[in-house]
Request: fold
Amino acid sequence: FGTAEEAKAMLDRAVAAVKEDKAKALDMFNKGEGGFKDRDLYVYCANASDGIFTAHPTLKGKQLRDIKGKHGAPLGETIMENATEGTIKETTYWWPHSGTDKPLDLEKTALYTKVGDQICAVGYYKE
Reply:
């Protein structure tokens, strides 16, 4: 699993990439290029205005607000309501880990922030 430190470093790089060239950054996040996909770590982003995913391995075009953790935690709603420019926040939830033979619901933490008109996040599993 990726660590909390690696997730934070990836989010920091993602914020810098979005500030430099948003379209290019979102394309890299969607393709997992440029170091934005590492084991179970990846960047996902959504429009701050309407919550539509602009970058995600499987949910691009879907609504962030609708995403709930496995025990009903309002993950997407929490991220939409609390993301703040220049501040990295975190929320913890349960999510299936698909890299195993049997998907297990594991505790996961999303680190997230607002950058321009995007809300971007990287999630990592607790050991």
In short: The two ends are 8 Å apart (CA to CA). The longest strand covers residues 104-115. Strands lie at 37-38, 41-47, 53-55, 89-97, 104-115, 118-125.
